[in-house]
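Write out this protein's structure.
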Amino acid sequence: MKSRSSTGGLVYSTELGRTCPVCRKAIAQCTCARSAVPTPPSDGIVRISRETKGRGGKAVTLVRGLALDAASLDKLGKQLKAACGSGGTVKDGVVEIQGDHCAKVLELLQAQGHKAKRAGG
């Protein structure tokens, strides 16, 4: 039988849920995974698009090209969701907001000083 240390350590705990094998903290409090993800390269233009593909016909507003770290991106995503009055998420450097809010998001980002434009149709 293999010991826990040779297989990577504790992966799940009933107290914490899923844990990070590196720092042994709960996934929600893990800082090693967030700091390891580099900021995606950007040309300085924030692109806002609307997408329905793979979402059962429901529209989602996507914001790409933000050259921000993970914490700042989460904060901006939260501000945009609150301003639009809808839900959403931040995945892989892309802010997803439920619904078609392209015009409102474009206006908000330009007011904050970002160079933003509509992308797609």
